[in-house]
User: What shape does this take?
Amino acid sequence: MESAKAAVPMFSHARNTKQWFPLDPKHQVLCTSKERKAHGASTKNLASMRVCCENREDGRMEMDRRRLLLSSSTLSVTALSSGKAMSKPFPAPDLSTCTYPTDLPTCATVNGGCCPPFKAGETAVDFKFPTSLPMRTRKAAHLLDDKFIEKYDKALTAMKKLPLDDPRSFVQQGRVHCAYCNGGYKVGSDNVQVHKSWVFAPFHRWYLYFYERILASLIQDDTFALPFWNWDTKEGMSIPPIYINKCSSLYDNNRDPCHQPPTLINLAATTSCDSGVVEANYANIYNHMVSGAETAELFHVATIRFESAEPTTLTAGALEASPHNSLHLWTGSSSNPNREDMGSLYSSGKDSLFYSHHSNVDRMWFIWNDKLGKKNFEDKDLLETEFLFYDENKKLIKVKAGDCYDISKLRYQYQEVELPWLKQGRSLKKAGKVIPKPKTSTFETAVAKKPKNLSSPLTFKVERPNKSLGKGQVEALRIEGLETDRKGFSGFEIFINYPEANSSTPFNSPHYVGSFTSLGHGIMAEESMKSMTTKEIFKMAISETLEDLGVENDDEILVTLVPKPAKDLRTIPITFTSIKIEYLSK
Assistant: This one.
């Protein structure tokens, strides 16, 4: 395998088919340079990043949108694998071996890389739970009062003014995400990747904890807590007002201009300028939190084990898939090739909204445990997986994934707000019209004879081996042999007993189960994944959907897959081999 250094692309202006430009070149700063600098904000565009686009035959510029986020709008994807996994948790990375990120989007560069300001001989100390901190309450961002907004702005301004070589600085905090997510670290022979597996939720909980504690220390206020973007309620479905003041430290110029308030998030079409439909958003969130996420395997998904003999495909579970991935893409700027900042992993930490978005993702995990009574993985290989972070005192701290399960031990809680998606999600779907199931004899069975190209809607009959579930069982749909070209966008919607479904069929249809969306990888990512299997198994729980359709006693069901179009994204074919029923234990 080539060295990380050799993998960094060398860009040239001499190519006739390429043009180079800074990100978001048309952005206009409406407040003065003096005001911007007072808040620690730059008056320049992101000159440290460069991207490329290609001239199309029609004269328009085609953005290369590779290595955007994987966005599965339901439930679970795992690898096709064989053999017995070694029981071994991932140790913390060695920061002294951090390299320039090897898994950046195509044509993107990061000035200075993503490595922390690690000093030779620096050693990490084990995390100790705080004993003297007050209980802090994270509040909904759209409900904040002026006093808190002023305090938050002051804290972030102070963070942005810290020198670059300070691990607490805003730039360095953003680089944490880049290093852990874009190939900055290797542990043994394995690349470190904290997305698309069971470490996703624990890593980001720890990340927010230290980010929050640094902000609090900079204003000497231990009661400070990050606000959460309350996108799961109608009143919070647009970007919170505190983030759109161009003269505030909370502002970021790399957000989609057509997704500014009062435009609501659109989980059905994340790159469209159309405002979202509240009821459809509620139904989607309900699917990912309740009906499709009944087990830890479906909610957190793929297991990864250090130096495992099993090939592994890192893929998103319900918590990460949507709204998490969808809102990363929705927020990022359409002016930028990889929808930077929020739309790409390496750059998302540059936007202060990222941390409030993830605060709500963390809240969703808390709700799944606390309100819905669901249980996390208790596998030692996950619980003892280690991460490194710098704390508010610039000390390097080693943490374990399992130690963040109980947020009360970390001394924070979430403001109690309404959960309309939980109250209304299922009723919204049941209120829709149920289409009688046509005769299944007219449809073929999806079996593994040869790969099927999903270039248009396809419907298959699927046999149900058992019509009555055993105690603690969940019935799930299993799509096997799923393959996509990693270099582009692909996806599909999933419906049960509705062959007429199309890309306009809403999420709150009683027939809707979920969707799979893959937005590909860059060239370097492709090289680093050669040892991984390219075939995936996509799973989603369907027990509740079958009950709502009144077909829980049927011997067969019809499953329709609808190719997913996307505005301003280059779509590519997707293939699969078979669709089956699987029974999982809760």
User: Anything to note?
Assistant: Residues 462 and 557 are 5 Å apart (CA to CA). The longest helix spans residues 200-218.
